[in-house]
Amino acid sequence: MVKESQETETTGNSAKESAKIAEYLNYIQQPVMAVDTEFNILFMNESGAKLLKSTPQKLKGHKCYDHFKTDDCNTDNCACGKAMREKREATSKTIANPVGLEVPIQYTGAPLFDEKGEVTGAVEVVTNISELVRTMQTMNSIVGAVASVSKDVEGYAEEVLKTAESVGTMGTQAAQASDKLKSSLEQVQQAAQNVSDGAQSLSKLAQDTAKNVEILTGKINEVDERTAEVNKVVGESDKLAVQVSAGGKQALSALDEIKKVSFGVQNTISEVNTSVKNVAGLADDISQIAGQVNMLALNAAIEAARAGEAGRGFAVVADAVKQLAGQAGQAAKTAIGSIDGITKSGNSAAEMSKNAGDAATRGDTIVNEAVNGSQQVAASMEKILGITQNLTTIVQDSTKSLEDVNRAIEQVASFAEESASAAEQATASIEEQTAATEQVASASKKLQEEGERAIEIARKISAAVKVLNEELAKAESLNS
Questions:
Q1: CA torsion sign, 230 to 231 to 235 to 238?
Q2: What pLDDT score does 41 carry?
Q3: Contact 176, 445 (CB under 8 A)
Q4: What confidence tens digit (pLDDT) does each residue in 109-128 have?
Q5: Is domain 19-128 in CATH 3.30.450.20, yes or no?
Q6: CA distance from start to end of the chain
Q7: 0.70 cut: is pTM over it?
Q8: What are the residue boundaries of the structural domains of the chain, listed by start?
């Protein structure tokens, strides 16, 4: 009796403890249930019954999978089944479908054992993770959007990097082109300066040549005056010779006068020859100056060719100067030829005058011979007169040639001044272009620097985007 009484008391105490535990479980806001090995519900707290829209008493003895209706039910994925099989806690996530609802849940099953350690069932604690699922869905959406934007940004970063590299390359090429253009402009500027210097030297030579031509013209005019005097003296001698031939009585005095006149003619012709030699020297100087002018014109043409498009005008001027120099040289040669003719004719006249003087001397001894000599003198004087007249013509031709030379030199000087002015204008224009080129070079260098800076920024963006993508991949793996 005592033993039965003790067993009854023990049973009563266990029932009280179970009731107390059940009361505590009812306070839990999460569904809690206990099932046997056949998944019959042994206990359901108030929260679980509320979720299933029933009461704990009504649910007792029912199959749990008939009410929760999850994808894990009746499968190896069921946490309670796994806990009973493996005799340890098991957790799973799924979707419960109680009374037509879809409730995301996370539930944990723990095995129940009897006194012998045999599994008699399992306790399941259910957590409604609807908010967590919605939060995770939102996070997944955000992560997806961020991942999409990240990919776009990565693409943009690559495009920016390519563009920046292109800008940097363009800046480098522009800087190199600017340096090359600056070097070319400096060469053109130097060529223009050389043309200007050559034109100024040419102008000075032309002025010096003009002065020499003026002096030469004066000498030629002096020769012309001397030739006129010779013509006058020869005319008088010719008259005296005729008188000697007509009247023998006055032969001696006439011959003596002829002798004096012949000596005067000889001296005058000697002076003429001296002046002609001086003229020949000046004409030779003009020929040499014309050669120098031609050489300067050739140098100007070479510099103009080096100047390219900017020196096209110089090339035209240089060609004109070269032609004029050739004309001046040719005129100087003509003048030298004419002067040689004057010299030869003067020598012939001097020789004949000497012969006339010798004939007059012989006439002093014998009157008859004097008369014959006077006739020879008359003939010689006629020849001398023809020579001096021819000499006058040659002198006039030389004066005309010198006038042509002077005009050509004036044109050379004019073209030289125009060349110098054009060269100075080109130099000023090139200086402006050089300044503009320096500005372009500065801008190109700045563009190159900005391109390099953009490349560095694009690389940083690309690196940051890669790090972001890696973090997003980690977040996606955690969500899954």
A1: positive
A2: 96
A3: no
A4: 999 999 999 999 999 999 98
A5: yes
A6: 63
A7: no
A8: 19-128, 178-459
